[in-house]
Amino acid sequence: MNLPYLSDSHAHLDDSRYDSDRENVIREAEEAGVGLILNPAVNEHSARCALELTKEFDIVYAAVGFHPSDCRDFDPDVHLPMMETWCQDEKVLAIGEIGLDYYYDDGAPRDLQKKVFETHIDLANRMELPIIVHNREAHRDTYEMVRDLLDEESGGVFHAYSGSVEMAKQLLDLGLYISIAGPLTFKNARKAPDVVAYVPLDRLLLETDSPYLTPMPYRGKRNHPAYVRYIAEKIAEIKNIPYEDVVYQTFENCKTLFGLDV
Ligand SMILES: [Zn+2]
């Protein structure tokens, strides 16, 4: 029997760290059994690169949006019509990566981040697409904005989830998905194993967040979508269920959330 396909719901393949070997990285992922890679954009340039990759590679899909760290470059008059056009592309599956990031002292002003986030959530509602949410040190504001602004039919996922079990419960109550990345595999992981134990398998997604957050045993090196299997293995271990079940169900979850028919 063939193994089910792995899915990497969040990888920045457009990142310049793949400039020298991008094609190989994607081919190696495919050979490692990855059947879907979703490349979220962080700004206009990265959206254009991601869209190019979707044309070149069957397994690559894209999301479009402005990351909170890039929100100063967002011009609604220019970028909203552009993104509406991109959303018509069948390989554009979501609005992302969007959200709030309060980690950096010199980051974009919080009011601007919120305004840009709100504009993107409105776009997702209009386009009936799910959102891919980035949240760093901004749990309360991010949660409240999604709760108050996102249409239930749009849906979405909190990527590289780093919050508490309590917040995970609140997100599940909103019908959202929780995406798990490499830090789950770290020896000092504390909250993440509890979150994985708590969240039902049919609401979990796998991701690498390549080139960041490289899982064990490659921590510290550049990440690779093929490494998503280490996260699936860890989830199987924590939930005490077969690895194949994790791989199969998380791919099904991608199909459900992103409206994919593959
Ligand atoms: Zn990301």
Helix and strand layout, with pairings?
Layout: E1 6-8, H1 22-31, E2 34-40, H2 44-56, E3 60-64, H3 76-86, E4 92-101, H4 110-127, E5 131-136, H5 139-149, E6 156-158, H6 165-173, E7 177-180, H7 191-198, E8 204-206, H8 228-239, H9 243-258
Parallel strand pairs: 1-2, 2-3, 3-4, 4-5, 5-6, 6-7, 7-8
Helix pairs in contact: 8-9
The chain binds zinc ion.
Give a quick rundown of the structure.
The protein is an alpha/beta fold. It has 9 helices and 8 strands. Helix 5 links the parallel strand 5 and strand 6.
Characteristics:
TIM Barrel; alpha/beta; binds zinc ion; 9 helices; 8 strands; 262 residues; single chain; eight-stranded parallel sheet
Class by helix and strand content? Answer: alpha/beta
Tally of discrete structural domains: 1
> Any idea what the shape is?
globular
> Radius of gyration in whole Å, from Cα?
17 Å
Poorly predicted segments: none
Tell me the CATH superfamily. Metal-dependent hydrolases
Separate helix tally: 9
Based on the structure given, which CATH architecture is correct? Answer: Alpha-Beta Barrel
Cα separation of the termini = 19 Å
Mean pLDDT: 97
**CATH-derived topology:** TIM Barrel
- Ligand roster: zinc ion
Strand order of the largest sheet: 1-2-3-4-5-6-7-8
Number of strands: 8
Helix/strand order, N-terminal first: EHEHEHEHEHEHEHEHH
| Relative helix content | 40-55%
Classify the beta-strand content into a percent band.
15-25%
The CATH class is identified as: Alpha Beta
Q: Could you give a short account of the major beta sheet?
A: 8 strands, parallel
